[in-house]
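Exam prep: given the inputs below (a chain plus fe (iii) ion), describe the expected output before reading on.
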Amino acid sequence: MCENNKWDSSQIRNYDLDLQPIPRLHYKDPKVDELMKTNQPVLLSGSNIAKPAVDKWTLEYLEENLGKCGHTVYVSKTHKFKYFNREKILSKANPKGVEFTSETKSVEMKVSDFMKKLKEWKQGDDRLYLQQSLNSSVGSAIVKDFMGFEWRYVTEKKIRHGWGELSANLLFIAMEGNCTPCHYDEQENLFAQIKGFKRCILFPPDQFECLYPHPVYHPHDRQSMVDFDEPDYIKFPKFKNVKGFETVVGPGDVLYIPIYWWHHIESLLADGPTVTVNFWYKGGPSCLEYPLKDDQKVSIMRNVEKMLLEVLQDPKEVGPLLRTILLGRYVDVQSFENIQ
Ligand code: OGA
Ligand code: FE
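Solution:
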């Protein structure tokens, strides 16, 4: 049960996971910087970071002011919206791609049509999730609200912690119960909750082995292959040992999700639609200081994987080649056989 009785445990899905709470601090607490400096997540409370949005962005207001252009809306038969990268799918223009059909489709939709479907939705219908970068096509009222964000604070964090440029502010409008399955991004994220509640489960970069990401060439690159609703412990045995953190964000809260941290995010059940705006910052220039940090190791693994795929030209050759490099040389044969 949450401390202020705004929601209860029947509104969150039940997963068999070992999770600790993410620290919740007043946004001006000096400990915030200690956590950010060491790439630890923290929930910032009491801020004005996205205050105009928290105060004003009802669904009616968004419908009125988001603009008449089409917005990107994902459609799914289940509660899961697993992101995929179109550029990695096989097509005439992309002969090196992968044969793939996604559970989730993306469509362009006017915000008025999206809101209509949201109001008429009933259990069993396809679910919708609007995910659209805030850009120059939004109406002037939204632009004004956006300019009223507490930019001094977020920019101070960007500079102090050496993050790269702000690359996007993504707007998320979800149906209750929608879930973004576990993945990591190559960006720093200030995740500002505007309306409704989202449960966020985070895992540090060193949990890579327990979370089994798809290979980098796959359209689901950066996404865990483990289905949290029905984990296949035969295929993914180390998922049993995964250790993470969790919190529930509500209106006005801002969650810092450090770069390369895994996150699984779900809108609470039976609580109506949710609205979030994130601030995505590119990673800062990383210098290789030793000992290497866990996120740097993930980045190195990605680069090695990409390089092998590039030169070998066939994903099937990557495993045998790595095995030949390792076996009896970097790992002893016995321990290698044990991990199979
Ligand atoms: C993100 C993210 C998903 C969601 O902000 O990086 O994965 O459902 N968000 O809010
Ligand atoms: Fe993400």
